[in-house]
Amino acid sequence: MAEYKLMKGNEVIAEAAIRCGCDAYFGYPITPQSEILETLTLRQPWLETGMVVLQAESEVAAINMVYGGAACGKKVMTSSSSPGISLKQEGITYLAGAELPCLVVNVVRGGPGLGTIQPAQSDYFQAVKGGGHGDYKLIVLAPASVQEMNDFVDLGFELSFKYRNPAMILSDGVIGQMMEKVKLSPVKPRWTDEEVIKLNGSWATTGKTADRPRNVATSLELDSARQEQFNHKLQAKYKEIQEKEVRFEKIACDDAEYLFVAYGSSSRICQKAIDLAREKGIKVGLLRPITLFPYPTKAIQEMAEKVKGILTVEMSAGQMVEDVRLAVNGKVKVEHFGRFGGMIPSPNEVVKALEDLIIKG
Amino acid sequence: MSDIKDIIKEENLVYKKTKVLTDNVMHYCPGCSHGVVHKLIAEVIEEMGIQEKTIGISPVGCSVLAYNYLDIDWQEAAHGRAPALATAVNRLYPEKYVFTYQGDGDLASIGTAEIIHACNRGENIVVFFINNAIYGMTGGQMAPTTLPGMPTSTSPYGRDVKTTGQPLVITELIAQLPGTNYVTRQAVHTPAAVRKCKKAIRKAFENIGQKKGTSFIEVVATCNSGWKLNPVKSNEWMVENMFPVYKPGDLKDE
């Protein structure tokens, strides 16, 4: 029997972590995502599954605990919101450089700086284009519902272990704080230590036995030629991810003359805007990227052949629009509409922007 | 006269390198304390038979490549963060022997938050704190433990305590934390000191087996390259100048 519950996005992250056999969560309080750590400490999963939950002394310590746990070959995660994710960037690039799998959840709030505790989507560049130093990519999943907050915890771990690369759930304050009905995932047991050795023993620090060379989790390679080789290996991995793991959703695109491109909570607003626009006779559809890296470039290119204009809708000053423009490559007009600093666009504003910037403009 | 080849026989063997120490040529400068401390840790791991259960966390600093020298599983941490990594390993593998190996810049400057909190939580780990009062790897810059008036490349006229503070005697701070069980300050400048230091290392690793919390071993160390002294003079300088500030001996043994 499937189990349904009415839950907050943040709460379901905690629940999904326990249910997918997560081994450890390390976090530090920050609004609007503190419910994740609160839910975990209330649920006491260490009594149930043995999952470790620890409030670290800082976001920096939390992400480095994630590094330590990930290097053990275990399923470990952390969560934070924008200013805290900035602090974690050092650890994230080390994780990427050491090819360690883990899950990082960002419940984005408005910035820059301390900014606001209200929702935003202004961490797209940070999540997708790097954030930390060096040539690396995260696998970035963008949930648009509480259900996807649930589903992407397991998916994030699955992809991060498949490619030995950190994965990020790029959520925002709307998705984190809102309540929706959610179908909870079935419970998967945590990997036993024997399973960890079987699955990840070729690289994880499980204790050096006589039958294998020592495993070292490191991102250091002082020989430039070898460092370049390693970077080529990383790039090949990112290319494979780009080829195999793109996920997106198309809504009302079959007869569309115009297109919205939006992810996360903006895509929900665009769904309402589609209804309003169609009542006015404007045939508009939505392409919702689900993976932000890998980006659905080809799907957007295909839509650019069919529509007269594209409006990206983001709760930012215009970040993802750059990737849409790269995909479209001048074929049709691409404009950006955004509210930011914690403000959320209304569906009416979105329709008006479509009319002003694309149809009339 | 007997030939040297006649002497090299199994029955004449009185000492050999532990197999936990790899055959890789160490990058440490001649006279540096790191090599001796590495050897002592490796010997203790072998003698206790815990090679398969030991996980080391190396720092950023001269010992960043420690994983090349001890034949155990290793994690290489970002600068100062080794105690955070060790925390996770300890929590996820409570039966393993986890240690961090950190220098004074790593532990007492950029990593103060991580070490204080790991020790306060009483993580069941061993911390090695190699204090040579200087940043060796980056070329001899001032460290938090640099002595007053001591010249370094970023305090070329000597450390001015009015602007840069007094040396941070962090081990005394650590000893006050309830999570720590055994806090000691050692050195490896004489055969007697080496033997004493090895005993301390053995005790610290045994404490892990007994789940006693954090064991913290500071090793007051030389950096003859950074100090611009030969190895013998470095040892003398350390005894004369470092020991009055960083006094060898046990600070806590519960």
Question: How would you sum up this structure, described in words?
Answer:
The complex is a heterodimer of chains A (361) and B (254). Chain A has 361 residues and is of the alpha/beta class. Chain A folds into two domains: 3-193, Thiamin diphosphate (ThDP)-binding fold, Pyr/PP domains (Rossmann fold, 3-Layer(aba) Sandwich), CATH 3.40.50.970; 249-359, Rossmann fold. Chain A has 14 helices and 15 strands. Chain A has helices at 9-19, 34-43, 45-48, 59-71, 82-97, 124-128, 146-163, 173-177, 193-200, 224-244, 264-279, 297-304, 321-328, 347-359; strands at 3-8, 24-27, 52-55, 76-80, 102-108, 139-141, 166-172, 179-184, 216-217, 248-251, 258-261, 284-289, 291-293, 309-314, 333-338. The longest helix of chain A is centred in the middle third of the chain and has 21 residues, at 224-244. The mean pLDDT of chain A is 98. In chain B, helix 2 (34-48) packs across helix 8 and helix 4 crosses helix 5. The radius of gyration of chain B is 18 Å and the shape is globular. Chain B has one domain (17-253): Thiamin diphosphate (ThDP)-binding fold, Pyr/PP domains (Rossmann fold), CATH 3.40.50.970. The termini of chain B are far apart. Chain B has a seven-stranded mixed β-sheet, with helices on both faces. In chain B, strands 5-6 form a two-stranded antiparallel ribbon. In chain B, a hairpin with a 5-residue loop joins strand 5 and strand 6. The chains are: A alpha/beta (361), B alpha/beta (254). The A-B interface holds A 23-24, 26, 52, 54, 56-58, 60-62, 64-69, 71-72, 74, 76, 90-91, 94, 98, 193, 205-210, 214-220 and B 51-55, 57, 64-65, 67, 71-78, 81, 84-89, 91-93, 96, 113-114, 116-117. Strand 9 of chain A pairs parallel with strand 2 (73-76) of chain B, so a sheet runs across the interface.
Structural category of chain B is: alpha/beta
Oligomeric state, counting identical vs distinct chains: heterodimer
The beta-strand count of chain A equals 15
Biggest beta-sheet profile of chain B: 7 strands, mixed
Detail the poorly predicted runs of chain B.
Answer: none
CATH topology group of chain B = Rossmann fold
Q: Could you say what the CATH architecture of chain B is? A: 3-Layer(aba) Sandwich
Largest interface, chains and sizes: A-B, 39 and 32 residues
Q: How would you name the CATH homologous superfamily of chain B? A: Thiamin diphosphate (ThDP)-binding fold, Pyr/PP domains
